């Protein structure tokens, strides 16, 4: 299975960047958020986060999400 760096659709605090990086690196999202917070305090993390938030694609919607949306929209 090919790994792709994408923003998370489910584990979002601001835009899903940290969760996407954690999933790509196969590490705990809390560690990524702590590291990113340290980088933001030093000044370089803010620009890096904004760049990632703009350039990283959102992970594809799962077929379960699509099916749930279709069933919801058909009832309304």
Please characterize this protein's 3D structure.
The chain is globular. Mean pLDDT is 80; it is low at 65-76. It has one domain (17-75). Helices cover 63% and strands 0% of the residues. The protein has 76 residues and is mainly alpha-helical.
Describe this structure in a few short sentences.
Helix content is 63%, strand content 0%. It has helices spanning 17-25, 29-42, 44-55, 63-75.
Q: Taking all residues together, what is the mean pLDDT?
A: 80
The percent of residues in helical segments reads 55-70%
Gap between N and C termini? 38 Å
Treating each run of at least 4 consecutive H or I residues as one helix, how many helices?
4
Integer tally of domains: 1
Look at the helices and sheets and give the structural class.
mainly alpha
Rough shape?
Answer: globular
Q: Please state the oligomeric state of the protein chains shown.
A: single chain
Strand content: under 5%
The largest β sheet comes out as: none
The parts where pLDDT drops under 50 for at least 5 residues are 65-76
The gyration radius over C-alpha positions equals: 15 Å
**H/E element sequence:** HHHH
Number of strands: 0
Q: How is the topology of this model organized?
A:
Layout: H1 17-25, H2 29-42, H3 44-55, H4 63-75
Keywords:
4 helices
């Amino acid at each position: 299975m090919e790994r792709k760096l994408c923003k998370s659709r489910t584990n979002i605090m601001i835009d899903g960047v940290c969760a996407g990086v954690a999933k790509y690196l196969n590490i705990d999202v809390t560690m990524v958020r702590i590291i990113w917070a340290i980088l933001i305090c030093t000044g370089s993390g803010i620009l890096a986060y904004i760049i990632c938030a703009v350039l990283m694609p959102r992970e594809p919607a799962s077929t379960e999400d699509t099916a749930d949306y279709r069933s919801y929209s058909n009832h309304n």
